[in-house]
Amino acid sequence: MSDIQLSALDAHAESDDSAASLSAGDDAYVRIRRDVLSCRLPPGAFVTEPELMARYGIRKTSCRIALTRLAQEGFVRSRPRKGYQVSPILLRDVEEVFTLRVQLEPLAARLAAGRADIAKLRELEAACRVQHPVLQLTDQIGVFMDANKAFHLAVAEASGNARLHRTLGQLMDEMSRLVALGFGVQKTKPEIKHDHNALIEALAEGDGKRAETIARRHIETFQAMTLEKLYASLAETGAAIPVNGPGSWR
């Protein structure tokens, strides 16, 4: 076998190793990210690479790939000599998330009127109401938030604005932590009442103005409900949301 062929085989083997590391890193990223969003890794908690490697049964390369991606998304922060900190939830974060949602989602609903896949939305709405009594409450909340996110992003996608869709996806992920923290401690699941169905009807009729109004009411109602649970949870645990600066809830 020639030197060129051997070099090609070596390059192929290195490529396979790199792909395997990336795949394992992707898996580690998904698993750690899920625990950050569900608050199994609490806001403000400090973690180290060895702790995460042991907890998730992953290698150092995979762990670093996952942490790098999570840091890019703002879910963790590197702390010299301490490892990493799960980003705390600040009062400013809560206000910013809801301020953006109440502006962007009504816009998405108005643009989606007459364009949305109504059958798909009805299917996604039904998924939001499925009960999973065999699951732990944290997992039930996670399943609900996944279904709820899928519904809202389907509306955003129907708006035809890719940037709007992408931005709302990021906001829904941040919402997951707020909901997990607030509702999880209070041992209850969020309720969506009938707003989803009302929104579907407005979209089906092509009534953009009504869809916009319903979406705004839905976000404002969910904001009040989430903040009530969040502050009740903080009072119960003796914690407090920092207003502007970092803090630890270890």
Automatic annotation (TrEMBL):
**Which residues does the UniProt record annotate as the domain HTH gntR-type?**
22-89
Q: Which SMART domains match?
A: FCD, HTH_GNTR
Q: Name one GO molecular function term.
A: DNA binding
Keywords attached to this entry: DNA-binding, Transcription, Transcription regulation
Q: Which PANTHER family match?
A: GNTR FAMILY REGULATORY PROTEIN (PTHR43537:SF45), TRANSCRIPTIONAL REGULATOR, GNTR FAMILY (PTHR43537)
Query: What protein name is recorded for this chain?
Result: GntR family transcriptional regulator
Q: Which gene encodes it?
A: ydfH_9
